[in-house]
Amino acid sequence: xxxxxxxxxxxxxxxxxxxxxxxxxxxxxxxxxxxxxxxxxxxxxxxxxxxxxxxxxxxxxxxxxxxxxxxxxxxxxxxxxxxxxxxxxxx
Amino acid sequence: xxxxxxxxxxxxxxxxxxxxxxxxxxxxxxxxxxxxxxxxxxxxxxxxxxxxxxxxxxxxxxxxxxxxxxxxxxxxxxxxxxxxxxxxxxxxxxxxxxxxxxxxxxxxxxxxxxxxxxxxxxxxxxxxxxxxxxxxxxxxxxxxxxxxxxxxxxxxxxxxxxxxxxx
Lengths: 91, 167
Prior knowledge:
The structure holds two protein chains of two kinds. Chain A is mainly beta. Chain A has no helices and six strands. In chain A, the strands form two sheets. In chain A, strands 1-2-5-6 form a four-stranded antiparallel β-sheet, with no helix packed on it. Chain A has a two-stranded antiparallel ribbon with strand order 3-4. In chain A, strand 1 (about 1-15) and strand 2 (about 15-25) form a beta hairpin. The radius of gyration of chain A is 23 Å and the shape is rod-shaped. In chain B, about 5% of the residues lie in helices and about 50% in strands. Chain B is mostly beta strands. In chain B, the strands form two sheets. Chain B has a four-stranded antiparallel β-sheet with strand order 1-2-5-6, with no helix packed on it. A three-stranded mixed β-sheet of chain B has the order 4-3-7, with no helix packed on it. Chain B has one helix spanning about 160-165, and strands at about 5-20, 20-35, 60-65, 65-70, 80-95, 100-115, 125. The interface of A and B includes residues 1, 2, 8, 10 and 21 of A.
């Protein structure tokens, strides 16, 4: 599993801060030292039978997913003394 | 008996290059080991059964799919697991004007080794008819096949003689 992230905490005004950034995550497919794994090759496989990993079979237990980006943004606003309003959203 | 050992190592390095440049490096490692061996001390030789495995405890004994997993059940066979994982994390913070920029990366890796010696004590199977393996001695008595761990051999015998073998 690996991840990279970058974010910026931007103090727009003395009472307003915006935080935004993006995170990329990768969770690699599980593997077994002797390729003792099997899976269905796909929903449209002509055989509809399990195939082993390696030895001309599947490349892995399942396909890698390299497209996991998670942007996020949040805001902190201090309108009055003793009051801070925070809101945020991320995926 | 089920001894367990857990080992954890972690380290952190916080570097302040200047008042606006800070780096944080962290490392972690965990190792978990758990094994199981049965305290079953029954020697099959004392019962007239020599399977040549060198292990105490009865083998797995199956009767024609009617009675299965007698003797060495799933709760009495040796097994062990070692799980390890490590994690490296780095964050770099750069303060510039009204911006505080942070860049980071993390790598984790986890792996495990395990074994489950299902037939360490051997296995003996009895069928009423339809031989799939070598016959036992027609005189009855102790089975004339030797079983070793991870080898699976079938004995063909009727139920009456099977019961005789186990007496």
